[in-house]
Amino acid sequence: MAEERDRSVAEEEEEAMDYAPVVFQCQRCREILADSLAFIDPLKGPKASVEMGYVSFSAVTESVTIGKDTSSTKKTDKDYGCFYLPLSCSGCGSVIGKMYTSTPREFDALRDAYTININKVTNYSLGSGHSVPQSNQGAIVTAKDMIDNEMSKVRQVVVTLSKRVTFLEQVMKEEVEPDLEEHPLPAEKKQVPKVMVPAAKQERSSGTPSRANVNKMSRRPSQNGHWSPVPSRRGRKKARIEVSDDESDN
């Protein structure tokens, strides 16, 4: 009897696991859109809905927003001839499906139902995972909250770095100012341009002839047309003294 009870309990648990509710979330922002309890049997709908990759629900959460403008399908679409309102996620604004308002007879089962594209959602089976620890429950946030959190962290880092740079600039400025007071920088010396004085002016100012003039003055033309050196003043004086001595002897 005990073994039969254990088997029945195990079978009930397996059945419960096989038919565990499935939660459908937005693939972009992880907002909960619907669950399998409101799931419409796809066998009741048209085959085209399965081929298009749509699933329909009789009820959805408040995260699903119904559009106001009615649109029609194109000739190339498999649901051609239907009029619908677009369904979008209130968390991120992405279009996730349709609500058919006017359909051919083939799509009557999907009229006024929430038909969602399976490529726009992700699902999670209840009871398939482990419970989240109490310490990690705060980490389960939406994509928007995660982005805001990261932006606030970046903002704090930028503000901290800006304060450090300002502090370092102030410290360097305080260290440089005392050094300038103790050891001032030398003033730049003004270079006076040199004035080139002509040679003639230098002779007049100094009173001494230049070598070129001395050479010209120390030569005179001879009888044969050649230039001969002129004796200096000392030589002339000696010659005069010798002549005067000869005259006195005579």
> Topology as H/E string?
HEEHEEEEEEEHHHEEH
CATH topology of the domain at 2-128: Metal Binding Protein, Guanine Nucleotide Exchange Factor, Chain A
The major beta sheet can be summarized as:
6 strands, antiparallel
**What is the CATH homology-level superfamily of the domain at 2-128?**
Peptide methionine sulfoxide reductase
Net shape: elongated
Low-confidence parts: none
Share in helix: 25-40%
Task: Count up the helices.
Answer: 6
Structural class: alpha+beta
Strand content: 15-25%
Biased composition (Polar residues): 205-226
Pfam family, one: Yippee-Mis18
Domain Mis18: 21-126
Subcellular location: Chromosome, Centromere; Nucleus
Short description:
The chain has 250 residues and is an alpha+beta fold.
List descriptors.
three-stranded antiparallel sheet; 250 residues; 11 strands; Metal Binding Protein, Guanine Nucleotide Exchange Factor, Chain A; six-stranded antiparallel sheet; alpha+beta
What would you say this structure looks like, in words?
- The chain has 250 residues and is of the alpha+beta class.
- Among the domains are: 2-128, Metal Binding Protein, Guanine Nucleotide Exchange Factor, Chain A (Beta Complex), CATH 2.170.150; 142-178.
- Helix content is 38%, strand content 19%.
- It is built from six helices and eleven strands.
- The chain has helices at residues 2-18, 47-52, 143-182, 199-206, 211-217, 233-249, and strands at 22-26, 32-35, 54-57, 64-66, 71-72, 83-89, 95-102, 114-117, 121-125, 219-221, 227-229.
- The strands form three sheets. Strands 3, 4, 5, 6, 7 and 8 form a six-stranded antiparallel β-sheet that branches. Strands 2-1-9 form a three-stranded antiparallel β-sheet, with no helix packed on it.
- A hairpin with a 5-residue loop joins strand 10 (219-221) and strand 11.
- The protein is elongated and about 150 Å long.
- The N and C termini lie far apart (186 Å).
